[in-house]
TrEMBL record:
The lineage of its organism: Eukaryota, Fungi, Dikarya, Ascomycota, Pezizomycotina. Residues 69-95 have a biased composition (Low complexity). This is Serine hydrolase-domain-containing protein. GO terms for cellular component: cytoplasm; nucleus; proton-transporting ATP synthase complex. Residues 123-352 form the Serine hydrolase domain. One of its GO terms (biological process) is secondary metabolic process.
Amino acid sequence: MSWFGVAPFKKFPAPVLRPMAPFFAAGLVIAYGINAAQNSMMAGDEWKNDPRNKKAAIRFFTTKMGDNPAQQSAPALAPSASDSAPASASTSTTPLPTPSSTPKPGQQNRPQRPPKPAPPPKKELKILMLHGYTQSGPLFRAKTRALEKLMAKALAPLNLVPALIYPTAPNRLSARDIPGFEIKESEEGGDEGGEIDSWAWWRRDEASGEYRFLEEGMERLAEVIAEVEGGVDGVVGFSQGGSVAAVLASAMEEGRSVPEGEKWEWVRKVREANGGRGLKFAVVYSGFWAPPQELGWVYEPKVRTPTLHYLGSLDTVVEEGRSRGLVERCEEPVVVVHPGGHYVPVSKEWVMPLVGFVRKCVEAKL
């Protein structure tokens, strides 16, 4: 074995490879010399302070941050001549800038974006929901629950949350007061015409056509409005409740004259309960106008509050002429006719006109 690490030339078995042996040996000698030269250069002081040496940069940052244990534990030495030299004459190793600390082109002069402002707080849109004859507040709520969901979704961009209020009328009805209700005789010889969960805002006198107990019904609304913080913004009513909604909206209008007398004290109460503010809108489902002459001031002059009227083309409970009579007594009515009977349509197709109307009225007052 020779000192080159290969067998002597005479031991190469293949005659073809023997001429390549001198070149192979020369390559090993050159590689060994280059490796020795690199090790010699890296051991010198110049390479230790060379910026291209990554270990030197790491030692510089460690020394700069005071993390070098040897430097921290070493005792204080007397200043040398190099320490007392001016700063301009001293030599130091400058660390290479890191990618994170180097600003991108155009980033230095770019203005900082201001923080996003907090969204404004949501405000409640308080709406009275007035049930019809023989109904109650909880029953009307069960029938119109879909309205609240669709209105909440449509009013969200305005930061408004609908708050629907379902009062129950004060005048309780018996079974005899309900049209079409059959009274069955009991085993004791009596009848089952007692009180049931049916209510009315007033009772119409069949002989005179007068609305009895109207004052009680309107005073109940004054009590409900007074309990709502900040008052109410609008009203929605069905059938008799729709007629009440129009009367209430007219009575709360600023500047409308009211007859004198104790009978109309409820007008003052509803106005005070709402802080003297009128309603922003009134929505009437299958409603009608009130014909008693004593209520003529409600429609003369016409109702100025924006109104939306839903009429059922197959409604057999409230004649279309009575509903049209209320429409004609409003200043700027909006009419929607649905192909149904005496009920509140809650499908999306028929709720969207309501949502658009309410949103338009609210935006006009913002």
